[in-house]
Amino acid sequence: MSNTCTPDTHKRGDSFDRVGEMPAFFPDGYFVGWEVASQIRTPDGVLVADLECAWLDDVTTRNLRLTKIDTKAWPLGEAKIDVQFKRTSDGFTFSSGTETLWIVGDVTHDD
Q: I need a labelling partner for 58 at 20 to 30 A (CA). Which of 28, 35, 70, 109 fits?
């Protein structure tokens, strides 16, 4: 997943939906047979959310979508996010870089 220089923001209560592209040095199909997981945590390590992870194309495994429909209970402030990849054949595991996500209040919302 690409590493950005500026922190991303997310409005609490809005559905979380991000797509990341795998770096070009991974050939198409490299992640076939791998499990993918992603979490958002506070800087202190408290779990905010387990994200749904799905490849846009299961054959190329080039673009990964991370989603969470309900974010109403997410705490405001700084959070951390990464993606973990686990090869199912032998358990080899590695993670993306950790990125900062700022969870901010929503102006328009249901009361």
A: 70
Give per-residue pLDDT as tens, 46-101: 999 999 999 999 999 999 999 999 999 999 999 999 999 999 999 999 999 999 99
Asked if the structure places residue 57 within a domain, the reply is yes
DSSP labels, 26-84: SPTTTTTTEEEEEEEE-TT--EEEEEEEEESSTTT--EEEEEES--TTPPSEEEEEEEE
> In terms of residue numbers, what domain contains 70?
10-96
Q: Do residues 79 and 39 touch, judged by C-beta distance below 8 A? A: no
Into how many domains does the chain fold?
Answer: 1
